[in-house]
User: Fold this.
Amino acid sequence: MRGRIGCPTRIITAIPHMKELAGGQAKELSDKAKFRLKVLDWHRNSSPRFSISGLPDASLTCRHFGIHRSMFYRWKDRFDPKRSESLENKSRRPKKRRGPGYSWELVGKVKDMRKADPTYSGKKLPAADDGGVPSVATLGRLIRRNNLFFRPDGIKQRRKRSGGAKGCTSRRAWQAGGIRHETCWA
Assistant:
């Protein structure tokens, strides 16, 4: 048997900005962040070879990848070599959201009124209060958002029956074309 010839093969992959990305724990990047990293790496390493001046060229990079220059400059400004998540998508949620147009005192009043009489809806509540009550739609929204649904103690909630014949209270038979049919009336 012949001995082995050669040396063991070790495969090494080169990831752009690998040292910067590994400055702590290497985090898995999304596909979009990987693309942005690829664009910035091409801009830094490959665009000087193709530009006339021999310097990195943003216009050339943008034409090569088919992106807009404003997007490129946004990514370039945002990129921090020490933080791999700097190229991830940022949240699109608004920084300030409009809050409800009613106060917590009104929520307490509506809660007390609904506990006293659960049949009071947004339409009945304005008549029960002295004044300064918002619109019927606002009251309905307030009841839904704060889950102000109360049942009086004596009333049990009716359950809907599932299935065909189980939920029938009465049956009615009729005949059409010589065929007998039965209908369920709940």
